[in-house]
Design goal:
With about 180 residues, the protein is mainly α. The chain is built from seven helices and two strands. Strand 1 and strand 2 form a beta hairpin. The longest helix has about 35 residues.
Length: about 180
């Protein structure tokens, strides 16, 4: 939750933040309404929320979708939204192929951002019980398992990659220096 006010840099007069939390009763009512929907209906609501511009997004809906009661359900629906956005979004009339691909790319990026937010919300709920959620990426989980099962090999690979990065950086630096030296002549 956002703080209701901030101290001024000098600490003399408090400066009010422009951020205001929505009414908790309105959020609770919205949570109940969204919780009563079927998965398809909630998916359509979630898609409409994600497709809306940031300025047009309803804070009450944002708080409700990210609430402990709905976060897990919304998180499961996000994957389907990103894979099949046309299932939930109505295409505008006379939309060109380029406009459609831009709209869907923007929708997928926003869906990914919302998925990250929901992951953090759910991870926080799980952390309150004293556990950690596994990382969402199979590659990240595989990396962690490799580090746990074969720590010597993992450290060897890390050192090789660090050396390769340093070598590439040195190569880029020498190319840049050579280009600057030839440009100064």
């Amino acid at each position: 939750m956002a703080a209701t006010h901030q101290d001024a840099p000098e600490g003399k007069t408090p400066r009010r933040s422009r951020w205001t939390d929505p009414d908790p009763e309105a959020v609770a009512t919205k949570v109940e309404a969204l919780n009563a929907l079927t998965n398809r209906q909630l998916g359509a609501e979630l898609a409409a929320f994600i497709a809306a511009d940031d300025a047009d997004r309803d804070k009450v809906t944002a708080y409700a979708l990210r609430s402990p009661q709905l976060a897990q359900k919304a998180r499961r629906l996000i994957a389907d939204l990103a894979k099949q956005p046309d299932k939930y979004l109505l295409p505008p009339a006379n939309e060109s192929a380029n406009a459609r691909s831009r709209r869907l790319a923007q929708f997928r990026a926003r869906a990914d951002h919302e998925a990250q937010l929901l992951f953090v919300v759910v991870a926080g709920l799980v952390a309150r019980r004293g556990h950690l959620l596994p990382e969402p990426s199979p590659r990240s989980r595989a990396r962690r398992r490799l580090a746990d099962e074969l720590p010597e090999r993992f450290l060897e690979l890390v050192r090789e990659e660090e050396a390769a990065d340093a070598e590439r950086a040195a190569e880029r630096r020498s190319q840049r220096d050579a280009a600057q030296a030839s440009g100064n002549r």
